[in-house]
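Input for the complex:
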Amino acid sequence: MTVPLSDIATAVLATTFQLSPFYLFAGMGEIVSEKSGVANMGLEGIMLMSLVLTFIVDYATGNPWIALLAAMAVAGAIGLVFAFFALRVRMDQIALGLAIYLFGLGFSFIVFNTAYPSGLFPNYVALPPIYSGWGTVPYFGTIFLQLDVMAYVSIALVVLTAIFLNRTSLGLRVRAVGENPKAADNMGVNVNKVRLFAILFGAVMFGVAGSYFAGNFVPGFQTNIIAGRGFIVLAMIYFANWKPYRALFAALSFNLVYALQNEYISIAGSTVASVSTLFNMLPYVFLLALIPVFGRKARAPKFLLKPYRKG
Amino acid sequence: MHENTQGLRWLKATAYNVLAVGLGILAGLVVVAYAGGNVEVALSSLFLDPLSSSGGIQQIFILFVMFYSMGLGIGLALKAGLWNIGAQGQLLAGMVMVFVVYLYLAFLPWPVLYVAMILGAALGGLLWIAIPTILRVKFGANEIVVTILLNVVAVNFGFYMLAGPIKSPGTALGFPITTVLPARFQIPNIIGNVPITYAVPATIAIGVILYFLVERTPFRVKADTVGESPETARYAGISIPRVMTITMLTAGALAGLAGATYMMGYRYELDIGSFSTNYGLVAIIVALVGRKHMLGIGISAFFFAYIAYGAEAMALAVNVPTYVVFAMEGVMMIGILMSAYFERRGAI
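Predicted:
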């Protein structure tokens, strides 16, 4: 039985567009945070915590919007903790990020296990497709109209982040405190206040990403369910040279490669079962292969990872 | 600074670190209580279980060896200003290589093959870190990003190897697991039934050798200069790529060795369970708590080995998921970083 090429292409594109928003929310959050000079490597831990809260609140209320708000709230709270240690205590950001990751990895599972000790949980109520009659529209419906509204919000977020960083005065201050905090300070910018804003924005976006993960990747929680996808965001924005539109390109192309190998494995079936894990490596190898091409020109914000002390 | 005041500062810093660990344990107990476990039972099993069974002693020492070996490499790279977040991937590469050598070089006579398995594991870790090293030295690519990426790739690559090239032919339903290493390919105990293997003194010896090579020679100054001020290093005529390459490759080989001790000294077979550990990340904490000092890392490794096993025993005793260990380690790490802050402020 052969599958028509148009069906394969539709399935590949549908997967690409469904998965990319997760990386876009997280990517825009990390770009703004890093532009201000603060790298948040705890993003996967924050995502795991907000993912767990999304499930629990969604199961309890049946309302994915309330679940999204809860996810954003818990992510913001962890962001506040991160900001305190990174800005006030001036902790090493990488070590702090890993600590937050380990904490989130462990605690998220405890929270879920305490809420549902039996391992049985209700059905997840996902956000509806943007057009309920998507099935009646050939190709286009499957690829674009099946997406939930947050997928479209993620594209808007890319545009807004680019405008914010390049065209607004707060965006200029975010970049200034990441490039030269001393000069910014001399010009009357409150360095740590701007960084606090950037960290919180980033954390809340990780929360949105975690929540999106619940609706579009898995319907139930497992340990370590995000499995490094959060960390991949760090690589994506590095290749994107901290530019929002390039991050969009990185996310789409990464997921296109993922969708292609995924579709190939499902069509080829048992004939490639023994090497399917090699195909699973492809998206990551693709990102690695981009390094000599794009990584050479990548230039991090000058004061990334460096805490600021007045005077 | 006088010897005395330095000793005093060290004592105070240690006191704060102990306090930080206490904070982590407290957080763990709060989590236990939240999850509905008995706090008293938890506390006693956290501290006493590791000592009361020979299985406990065995696990503590194997964890110590792994944490120390990986921590040494991470600390060494950190001295040169490089973050090796990829010890986990290098560890997996080492584990896989033990079986690649065992199966594909099986024609070698016993003692040669035995040594080749250990060296193969070191080579596996070295090759795995060679990728970020080359990308960093030749293309200036950020090593944090690349080592993180390679951790994910290592897991997938390990799955592939387990599903085919190093899979045991005898398993039912194609279950992905290797053959069990026969006794003569296992690392033996030093004394009869006491489950402490020769890997322990061997790793300590590596730590001491590195201490003399790194802390007591001009190499330390070189590495520190590259780490803290590449500009100065360039003026001083220090070859930055050379220092980076040496420290990174050593770090990879050490993490690969940790994989050999895990397989040949404890598990004896490789399955998917070994891929989902997080030892490589905990080793970063170990290196930081040991203040990048080649001997300090040993003390910190032993301590984290004890806590990691104790916390797992605690979780099992009170029927709380063992994932509580990660939450505790996270809090401990923040606490320990806090103590460095107080020290800097002169509060202690």
